[in-house]
Amino acid sequence: MMITSESTAKFNPFAPGLKEDPYTTYRLLRQHNPLHHTLDMWIVTKYKDIIQVLNSDAVSVNYIPQYVIKQKVGDIPGLVELGKKAIVFTDPPDHGRLRRLAGQAFSNTNIQAYTDRIQKLIEELVAPMIGEKSFDFARIAHQIPLHTIAHLLGIPDEYINRIDEYIHRVRSILEPSLLTKMRIRRIEEDLQSCLGLFQKIIDYRKTDLGEDLLSKLIQARVGEDRLSDSELGIACVMTFVAGHETSKGLLSNGILAFTKHPEQWQIFREGQATSKQVIDEILRFDPPLQQTVRLAVSELQVGSQTIQKDERMLLCLASANRDEEQFFNPDAFDITRDAASQIAFGHGIHNCLGQMIARLEGKLLFTYLQEHVQHIELASADYRWNTDGFITRTLTYLPVTFYGA
User: Fold this and answer.
1) Phi and psi dihedrals of 160, rounded to 5?
2) DSSP for residue 289
3) What angle do CA 373, 377, 378 make, to 5 degrees?
4) CB 288, CB 17: distance < 8 Å
5) In whole angstroms, what separates CA 94 from the centre of its chain?
6) Considering only CA atoms, which of 90, 106, 138 is closest in space to residue 245?
7) Are 357 and 243 in contact (CB under 8 A)?
């Protein structure tokens, strides 16, 4: 993106090369036009402005469901229900109710109980690759969260691959720029198929409750209130939709960062940084979720601009994480820094409920590699980013070599 004057500094999500390097664009926008209107939305790039919007009660997370309904593609009951009952798309007071109930299952204690199982999964997938001349780490980064989430929810193995196929297509609901009428109809079909599978599992779980998170969601109560079957199914769908791609990106983007900054890997191996610092810095430096959308439900002032009711805002989380006013030398990958204030998982009441799952996967993977891998190297410069949309930034192919310790 060429900047010739402040007036021409505009965000273009379809610009050539943006997927490969969005951070140069973000930096130029922060410097020249940090808050501007283009493509029928406000682009917000600075940390302090994004934090303000995320904390504001003048904005809604329901833009995408509203957009889908306005397309008038016919009967889409699954997507209508998703918009009403998914935590990521609901505002207070509905959001608070769903979060209080779901939070009983998605507690740190419940998730930490799966540490040994996730550790075993990581060892099974990674150990055979150590010493191989080249292997695709993006494939492993896909499998770790897929099977982790399935295990956490108590999904039988025979359903996992089918759910993966459905979720891959349902996930595009998060990319409003790609939502043609044909795609919306296809998402509805896949969503209905996925919900049908989850309903079978829910029916079975009700007769045979276990220690899995789905059983805990079924048993969650606030007074007499509980999650309906519809809400349980949607919770399962959104755990995969919101949790898989972000976890995959955390793992693969982190490995790529270490291949490009081998000195940081040695710092980690020598014990000069904790696993928490590593995870926070990966999330700050190259977050899987690059942007999120908000809709103004009343007028609000952001910086020097007045955002009118019904105007939408694209909050560039990845830009905020590289804001010079928030982080020293932000374009440097430095695992010894304190990056706890990064907002890769959002901020405020809509910060990601399942981020503890991604963090645990990251901690276990990188700690395992710290103990067993001396050096991480790109086996080829031909790594590839997912080009289907711009809200997320994850790798579809990452050829690497792990040299054993």
Assistant:
1) -60, -50
2) B
3) 140
4) no
5) 22
6) 138
7) yes
Supply the range of the domain harboring residue 66. Answer: 16-404
What is the C-alpha separation between 29 and 11, in angstroms, rounded?
A: 7
User: In this structure, how many other beta carbons lie within 10 angstroms of the beta carbon of residue 77?
Assistant: 10
Residue whose C-alpha is closest to residue 351's, from 312, 317, 400? 317
Element at 277 (helix H, strand E): helix 275-285
CA distance linking residue 168 with residue 161, whole number of Å: 11
- Ordered per-residue pLDDT tens for the chain, 405 residues: 444 444 568 899 889 899 999 999 999 999 999 999 999 999 999 999 999 999 999 999 999 999 999 888 889 999 999 999 999 999 999 999 999 999 999 999 999 999 999 999 999 999 999 999 999 999 999 999 999 999 999 999 999 999 999 999 999 998 887 889 999 999 999 999 999 999 999 999 999 999 999 999 999 999 999 999 999 999 999 999 989 999 999 999 999 999 999 999 999 999 999 999 999 999 999 999 999 999 999 999 998 899 999 999 999 999 999 999 999 999 999 999 999 999 999 999 999 988 999 999 999 999 999 999 999 999 999 999 998 888 999 999 999 999 998
What CA–CA distance (Å, rounded) separates 201 from 298? 41
Please check whether residue 10 lies inside any domain of the structure. no
Whether residue 67 is contained in a domain is answered as yes
- Which residue from 192, 195, 188, 190 is spatially nearest to 233, judged by alpha carbons? 195
Contact 394, 253 (CB under 8 A): yes
CATH no. for residue 113?
A: 1.10.630.10
Identify the DSSP state of 378.
E
- Region of 401 (left: φ > 0; alpha: ψ -120 to 50; beta: rest) is beta
Is 6 a member of any domain? Answer: no
Q: Is residue 4 part of a domain?
A: no
Domains in the chain, number: 1
DSSP-derived pairing of the beta strands 35-38 and 305-307: unpaired
